Fold this sequence. Notes:
By secondary structure, the protein is an alpha+beta fold. The protein contains 6 helices and 4 strands, in the order H-H-E-E-H-H-E-E-H-H. The chain folds into 2 domains: about 140 residues, Roll (HIV Type 1 Reverse Transcriptase, Chain A, domain 1), CATH 3.10.10.10; about 60 residues, no CATH class. Strand 3 and strand 4 form a beta hairpin. Helix 1 packs parallel to helix 2.
Amino acid sequence: HNHICILAGVILAIEVSLGHDAPFGPKCSFWAEILSAFKLAKQERPTLQSRTEDLEVVNLGGGEETREIRVGKLMPRDLRQRLVELLKEYADIFAWSYRDMPSLDTAIVEHRLPLIPNTVPVQQQLRRMKSEVALKIKEGVEKKWNIGFFAVAEYPQWVTNIVLVPKKDGKVRMCVDYRDLTKASPKDNFPLLHINMLVDNTSQHALYSFMDGFSGYNQIWMALEDKEKTTFITT
């Protein structure tokens, strides 16, 4: 009798979880009460909806100069006003374009790309792409070329392709497919913090602020002996 009762309860639980009516009456009053409570709880379960905060665009520049930032509208008005005034006062310390980037002194920090011993360099073949994609790549390369981010590499051993990644604002981000180079690099044994630890650190705080460098990846120079490894195809 106990085995029949358990089997009936399992079948009923599956049927109720799928939103179906029970195919037969419960053989055990215990399971009848449990399943009734389960079905009621499922009906009363609140639905969670993701909410995107509305942002207000504020121009910190003067005259024809555009220096736009976005401030959340859920912030109290007086606090938002004080924040905007503070940002306007120190607007000149932020980088608004590639030309504003001072870069970091190589004596302090620089990118290095160590490789696993006896690694065979990989030269990716140029991938075919649509004309509109090629045009966007050309624009992205020229923008950084004019600033001095890129240099011509002759007879490189490592060659990779450019990949365009769509952004949330409809624009695209120009990336480079460094997967082959990543496979040939030693793994870092220092993992990031668990997300629950980061969330716990925000408790009992009304505001949570952080700093983000403008195009931060390009703020750090590549070590001279490792530059050739980052070569990518443009045409």
